[in-house]
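Reopening: structure tokens for the pyroglutamic acid complex, inputs below.
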Amino acid sequence: MKNLLITGFEPFGGEKINPSWQSVLALDGQIGEYAITKLEIPTVFKKGAYAVIKKAEEINPDVIICVGQAGGRGAVTPEAIGINLMDANIPDNEGYKPINTPIIPDGENAYFSTLPIREMVEAINKEGLPAGLSYSAGVFVCNEVLYTLLHRFKGTKVRVGFIHVPFFPEQTDGSKPSLTKEQTVKALTAAIKTL
Ligand code: PCA
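Re-run output (same inputs, fresh job):
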């Protein structure tokens, strides 16, 4: 049995729920040959990434997938790249709003995801659900978590990546795209089966 650590975020930006954690929480405890460990992490710079690293040091996962909300996106989007930049439009859940600040001052400019992101997109599409590659995880906490983890696990056997998911229907008046929890869980499950 292999180990997958999968995380979702707490709500942020005035939302009452975060579809990333709601969906992660609803995943089966075992998918294919992976035992699934689920973790909710704070939408707070540094603390979110630290929580993932701490749990990873405890359970030695083969793969880490972080899932986050991308309100306004209409598809489940595996992220291709994390960049060394924080440039927040809104404060994180502890009021920190870094502008034009590197995540790791002497770190690489960027790292590529080490997940099978193309296969994941294909697998989700095969379920009849919308998916696409994304080449920007933004410049808020999600990108910071992705970049920090790719930096931390570079050169190790641990595969690391990030998947953004749309709003749930109850988060929008219909003017923004959404996927239900059932659809999002189905998409994440299909993605995990490509590992
Ligand atoms: N989405 C935010 C941070 C937490 C989340 O779920 C982001 O895309 O940066």
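The longest strand covers residues 2-9. Residues 83 and 110 are 4 Å apart (CA to CA). Marking as resolved unless the reporter disagrees.
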